[in-house]
Amino acid sequence: MRDYEIASILSVELDESGLAALTERIASWIAAAGGEVASVDNWGRRKLAYPIKKQQEGHYVFWYASLPPAAPAEIERQMRLNEDVLRFMVVRAELPPPPEEEETQEEQVEGESAEESDVTGEADADSGTDAEELASPELDTPETNADESAPVA
Questions:
Q1: C-alpha closest to that of 90 among 108, 76, 77, 107
Q2: Which of 12, 42, 70, 80 has its C-alpha lying 20 to 30 A from 105's C-alpha?
Q3: 153 located within any domain
Q4: By residue range, what is the domain housing residue 8?
Q5: Model-level pTM greater than 0.70?
Q6: What is the C-alpha separation between 21 and 23, in angstroms, rounded?
Q7: pLDDT digit of tens for each residue in the chain (153 aa)?
Q8: Cβ contacts of residue 12 below 8 Å, gap of 6+?
């Protein structure tokens, strides 16, 4: 099984029940082809960049699914035959992580950044003494006086 992203633009002439029925029908095509829908991302009604079939807007819906290698051809055939599908695209992609995993990853990142800030703070405290030493260099060395008196070209 390979992971696919199925992007589609559906007609705005569909009412809410018709849109829900069409998204369920496409999900059933995925299941009939031997695939498994991981998630559905409905972006809603959006303005198109250019008119498609004399329509200025469309419903954007994305499916993330695991499919056998021969299944995308069958799904594309079914979408091509349906008049309510304005445009579609089936590409191999990675599945998005489930929402619970994203939250735990964000918590881990926040936890790591807090630990890193402690480590950075310790380094800043150590470098603070170095900064004080650099702030008050001894001016009576001949190298420093030579650099200051040299003309800048």
A1: 76
A2: 42
A3: no
A4: 2-92
A5: no
A6: 6
A7: 889 999 999 999 999 999 999 999 999 999 999 999 999 999 999 999 999 999 999 999 999 999 999 999 999 999 999 999 999 999 998 755 556 544 555 555 555 555 554 544 554 555 555 555 555 555 555 555 555 666 666
A8: 45, 55, 57, 58, 59
Angle in degrees, CA 13, 17, 21, rounded to 5: 95
d(CA 109, CA 87): 38
Task: Based on the fold, state whether residues 18 and 71 are members of the same structural domain.
Answer: yes
Contact 6, 71 (CB under 8 A): no
User: Cα–Cα distance between 127 and 33 in angstroms, integer?
Assistant: 63
